[in-house]
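Hi there,

I know you've been waiting on this one. I reran it after we fixed the sequence typo, so this is the corrected version. Both the input and the resulting structure follow.
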Amino acid sequence: MYHVQGTHVVPGMSEIQARRARAWEKPAMVAALLVIPYLLVNFYAPGGRWEAVADAFYLLLWGFFVVEAAAMIWLAPDNWEWVRHNALDVAIILATAPISVWPREFEVVQVLWLLRLLDLLPLFHRRLFRITVIRFAFILWSLTIFGGGIAFATLESTQEEAPGLLEGIYWANTTVSTVGYGDWLPHTVASVLLTIPMQAMGVVLGAILVAGILPKFDREFARGFSAAVAQQVTSIATDVDETEENVEDIEADVEAIAHGEVAQDRVLAQMARDLSALKRHVGVDAGPAATSGAAAGRTS
């Protein structure tokens, strides 16, 4: 949450401070995962028997975030520097405080607790599964449409045809994906204010997906290009080997003529055949050479 590497350890901590800070990692991971069921319970709880459970759930999570932040401020070498670099986390804690003066609609700010999952992704990467760019994009997409869907359904709950959770998630997905069918529209000022950042989030998510997918295509293209080059190199190497064999045959024919081991006409005819084969390998027309070789044989 508090470091670029995703751990609770910040630069400048002593070994003892770092060990105490790491002790918060697992509880923070559990609390971040509990945000999802809390938001579901809180969405369906008002006016029902689960309302007391939702309130207790809320106080438990908010209290943990406050205690965790206080512990990190106490452990950090520079308290104000920590607050300055974690202003968003502090602002979310303050905005979701149990203060009765907040209007009911302001409760949707609690969906920002989902950002804790993004803060702790490096911990998930180290302890649970590998986080790639594409996986990060889909995780961010899922959290955005889930949180945005709950917020939209909550803010539109007073309408005559109020959307349910599924309709809220559907609206969030069409908004983020910039499809915008228009079958579900914001009718309140709060819903409109929610729509604006959701639309902007679609551009960000699209850019992240492109950044994650393009390198994969580049790697596939590089593999295909490398395979084609390797095939060409293998073909050239085969031609070189055959050419060397033909040259060796010609050298053997020349040696035979020099030592008078066989009749000259037979050697010259064989040389003509070897030269013809050699020129075929290098792409030269061997017709004249073969003709002159045969004529030389007849003359001899």
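Quick highlight: The radius of gyration is 38 Å.

Best,
R. S.
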